[in-house]
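[Meeting: bench + compute handoff]

Bench side (C.D.) handed over the final construct sequence. Compute side (W.E.) agreed to return the predicted structure before the next meeting so the bench team could plan truncations. Sequence as handed over:
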Amino acid sequence: MPTPPPDARDTLILLRPDFLDQGTRWFCPYSAQVRGMLAYYPELADSLEVVEVDFARPRELLAELLGDGGKSLPVLVLHETSPAEVAGVTVAEAQGRRYVDKTIEILRYLAVTRGTSPPH
């Protein structure tokens, strides 16, 4: 799998693990699923800009990239040269940027566009 130049990478935004909410420490199971795929296929990280953000809102990076469209995590923000259509994946758009924000669809998108095994 060829690695795109750094400026042509999709941006994967995950919640940082062990965040504090209402006095309790948590992790995001959806971000953990995506992290799991990155652990199975470490070469995927070379094709992405992986960013962890804090749980606290507003999440400035999401607001900057997607405006009101960016409320849930994880989210895969696609580079302008990335494929716009992948079977079984809904690609949304906000502020002129395309993105995928459903965990299983992020996994499908990465599998198809990076040549790994897809989720079952």
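W.E. noted at the follow-up: DSSP finds three helices and seven strands in the chain. C.D. will use this when planning the next construct.
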